[in-house]
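Exercise 7. Given the encoded structure of a 405-residue chain, write a plausible sequence.
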């Protein structure tokens, strides 16, 4: 306790030097904590959003190049029934949702556009509902046959409102070209830029237009324990050999999306480290100046019996204490920014950054990883670059001062 008071009193005697070290810590920590928090948020946002709006924890989809053949309808029906029976009866299944996505055209007025058409059971798909931010209207219900959700982007582009109609082209699985008027029941804000050009319809309407009926094999499942996914995928693939069965991490683009969080940590973390390394030159200069100015004090401490390690730790501890105070100030500023993001919708400033962040609303996650990790990283860098230098210089000054007495 006495040593701590001694360290703090020395900081108070040289406030400008302590302020410089604290400012270095504050600036570095603000960028690093933001980077770690943003990375955590992006990773979790993309993971849950991908599961909700693309894959589920596992999904049965159409293999590339696959074409339905009417003469094989009985086999498709058997496999579809096997998929339903397996997933609905599996103890690890939390929710089973008929689900399909395909690219096709829609027509709004006289304009046509190629969009991603998603089809789901809105009642069963609880995670999709949780992750979809409606700005107007409601999700289509059983009473709203051929209802559709469209994005705010499409609504603005074609001046569409609730109650308006669009034509969706959803061909039959067996070759017929089907088109149907869908009435807009809801408008939602896309949670990532790659969902901007998308609409979502009821699975009942999609199945009716594709004419698959009981032969519809396409599902996504939410599970209770992700560790069981490899076994479930293997068993399900054996039951539906004509179709593709994957866990959400088995898709290469999903893995790319999940890597965006790490990319953000590396990008902002690299910026923060460049800032800190530049400031580290000044921190070392402050420490060495302190040692030179207080060489008489060092000699006295060693002469009265203080070990060289204790003397070194006193000087290193002063810089560490100033750095910690600055770190707390920088982390506090990021906490304030996080609270602001939670209370106010803030869009990423550039489209490029929207794609980089993987979300259209800024947010950061502050947990033990994002708050403690950056400090441990800065401490490690400070220790590796400065600790031994402080020990060598304090001992050098001690030897010279004791020799001169």
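Solution.
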């Amino acid at each position: 306790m006495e040593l701590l008071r001694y360290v703090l009193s020395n900081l108070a005697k040289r406030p400008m030097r302590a302020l410089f070290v604290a400012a270095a810590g504050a600036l570095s920590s603000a960028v690093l904590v933001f980077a770690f928090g943003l990375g955590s948020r992006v990773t979790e946002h993309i993971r849950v959003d991908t599961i909700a709006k693309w894959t589920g924890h596992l999904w049965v989809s159409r293999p590339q190049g696959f074409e339905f053949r009417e003469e094989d309808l009985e086999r498709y029906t058997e496999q579809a029934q096997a998929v339903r029976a397996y997933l609905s009866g599996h103890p690890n299944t939390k929710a089973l949702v008929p689900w399909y996505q395909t690219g096709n055209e829609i027509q709004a007025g006289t304009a046509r556009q190629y969009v991603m058409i998603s089809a789901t059971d809105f009642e069963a798909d609880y995670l999709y509902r949780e992750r979809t931010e409606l700005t107007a209207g409601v999700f289509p219900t059983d009473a709203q046959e051929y209802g559709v959700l469209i994005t705010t982007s499409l609504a603005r582009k074609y001046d569409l409102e609730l109650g308006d109609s669009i034509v969706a082209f959803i061909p039959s699985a067996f070759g017929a070209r089907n088109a149907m008027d869908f009435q807009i029941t809801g408008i939602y804000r896309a949670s990532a830029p790659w969902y901007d050009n998308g609409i979502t319809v009821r699975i009942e309407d999609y199945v009716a237009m594709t004419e698959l009926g009981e032969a519809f094999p396409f599902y996504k499942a939410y599970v209770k324990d992700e560790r069981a996914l490899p076994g479930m995928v293997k068993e399900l693939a054996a039951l539906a050999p004509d179709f593709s069965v994957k866990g959400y991490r088995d898709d290469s683009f999903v893995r790319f999306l999940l890597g965006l969080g790490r990319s953000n940590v590396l990008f902002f973390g690299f910026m923060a480290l460049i800032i800190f390394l530049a400031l580290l030159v000044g921190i070392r200069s402050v420490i060495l100046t302190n040692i030179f100015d207080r060489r008489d004090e060092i000699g006295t401490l060693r002469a009265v019996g203080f070990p060289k390690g204790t003397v070194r730790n006193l000087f290193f501890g002063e810089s560490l204490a100033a750095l910690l105070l600055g770190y707390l100030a920088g982390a506090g500023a990021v906490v304030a920014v996080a609270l602001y993001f939670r209370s106010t919708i803030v869009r990423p400033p550039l489209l490029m950054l929207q794609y980089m962040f993987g979300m259209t609303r800024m947010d950061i996650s502050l947990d033990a990883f994002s708050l403690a990790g950056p400090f441990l990283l800065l401490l490690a860098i400070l220790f590796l670059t400065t600790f031994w230098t402080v020990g060598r210089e304090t001992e050098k000054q001690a030897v010279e001062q004791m020799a001169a007495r």
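Remark. The mean pLDDT is 86. Students should compare their own answers with the one above.
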